[in-house]
Amino acid sequence: MADKKKLVAEITSMDEDFTQWYTDVCIKADLIAYSHIKGFMVIKPYGYAIWENMQKLLDERFKETGVQNVYMPLLIPESLLRKEGELVNGFAPEVAWVTAGGTEPLTERLAIRPTSETVFSDFYKDDVHSYRDLPRLYNQWCSVVRWEKETRPFLRSREFLWQEGHTIHASKEEAEARTQQMLNIYADFLANDMAIPTIKGQKTEKEKFAGAEATYTVEALMHDGRALQSGTSHFFGQKFAKAYDITYTDKDNQLKYVWQTSWGATTRMIGAMIMVHGDNRGLVIPPKIAPIQVDIIPIQQRKEGVLDKAYEIRDMLKGFRVKVDDTDKSPGFKFSEQEMRGIPLRIEIGPRDIENGTCVIVRRDNFEKKEIRISDAAAAVGELLKTVQSDMLKKAKAHLEEMTYAAATPEEFRARFDNDKGDGFVKAMWCGDRACEDKIKEMYGVTSRCIPFEQEHIAGTCVCCGKPAKKMVLWAKAY
RNA sequence: CGAGGCGUGGCUCAGUUUGGUAGAGCGCCGCGUUCGGGACGCGGAGGCCGCAAGUUCGAAUCUUGUCGCCUCGACCA
Predict the structure, then answer these.
(1) ipTM > 0.90 (yes/no)
(2) Radius of gyration of chain A from Cα atoms?
(3) Distance between CA A339 and CA A283 in Å, rounded?
(4) Nucleotides on strand B with an atom closer than 7 A to protein CB?
(5) Which nucleotide lies nearest residue A157, CA to C1'?
(6) What structural domains and CATH numbers belong to chain A?
(7) What is the pLDDT of residues A312-370, one digit of tens each?
(8) How far does CA A99 lie from the centroid of its chain?
(9) Tens digit of pLDDT for each residue in A171-193?
């Protein structure tokens, strides 16, 4: 098509410059605007609607497991933050501080929460007295601030929206089970709602959360072959319980420390959605979280009856999220905009169709186009949205598998990573030494993403040092 | 925090070398014609040239300082 170049002129091709493509999509799809402070972005209505849908679907899953929502203070006194050493050390470089109230300097400076383990712990300390009070399954939806050096929309902003669940339990087993349960919820949500397949596993000592005893993660693979941590769940053991003195009296009248977990997922998942599903025309949103699922575009809308028919079709599609684009832009403009915004289905309706009693329906994910009877619209849309949703997951799964390699030897490992291309996940054996992890990162810019739950035997020796290997690790360049 | 780049209508930028009446395209507003892949005509609105101090008769342009943004590294959801 002669106009093809012009059509996509506003979005940089992802093959040409993936980073620029990503930024272009964020802006052109109307998700965000930059603010005047580095790392703080405006999430526009369309972007926020995506987040709201994600929140709703996640929140439902949480609540099904007994989780309750709460809200905790934004500010944390420095003394409170400092009670658990590892957490402070982990976050110290990126904490933002409040040092004055009005015109008066504060006697103790206050941290803007980078995460709320300390606040929850401090609260639980007085809130829980008996085994009858356990478990506590609290979650909050809020924003946190971490003063990152380099920032990118959704992937790494200084303020980001998330949920943080913080639970306390009477037994170690129960807390560990909760950690796994929440990780499974993330994996399930990502696969079934966001159409993003992930690899589940445990973080190494080097990569685990500051203060955690064990950190579990779901790792997704972006279109450019880089990994993105898309949800984490931590088992804290009794570390915070001891630092913050969270005790309860058990059935046997003994004073005991609680067992604790936390788990979080962020607006970063929107970045994952963009980079997993997007293409050179822009965003592609999975139907279950798309703010608009069907965009009805009238052709020659000023002709008698066209707009009426468009509204009529909209009314037939009750139960779906439908928009009629009745602005006076040209149809070509509307097509491009619908594609840029990743709306899963487009219905074209013009005088020609009306005469035949048909309309044209086009899929965003693969541009497949077909003519259907207007009377069949509701059934066809319902069917197609399901198909698009599952096809998107299939496609993403195929990409993940295609981009996952096994490296048995240092040479094979090098061959995958010692260049700008050929990223992806690499499964390789590891001896368990931090030194090898550090060395691999230094040599290739590659980090251990996780020790997958589903272990395979790739080789007998470590891919770095050649000593006997303990675990198979999933390696990748990461965002 | 290191290295580079950039601050001029909403956006992308020209103008800065050589100081002399603030420009273009896109977008926006109005009217009309269009409409099956980013339409067109006519009319219109919109700028303390990031901020501050200096040099000068005169500064978007020169000097100094300062603030901010972008990209890439080290650190991180």
Answers:
(1) no
(2) 25
(3) 7
(4) 1-2, 33-39, 68-77
(5) B77
(6) 24-277 (3.30.930.10), 292-387 (3.40.50.800), 404-476 (3.30.110.30)
(7) 999 999 999 999 999 999 999 999 999 999 999 999 999 999 999 999 999 999 999 99
(8) 33
(9) 999 999 999 999 999 999 999 99
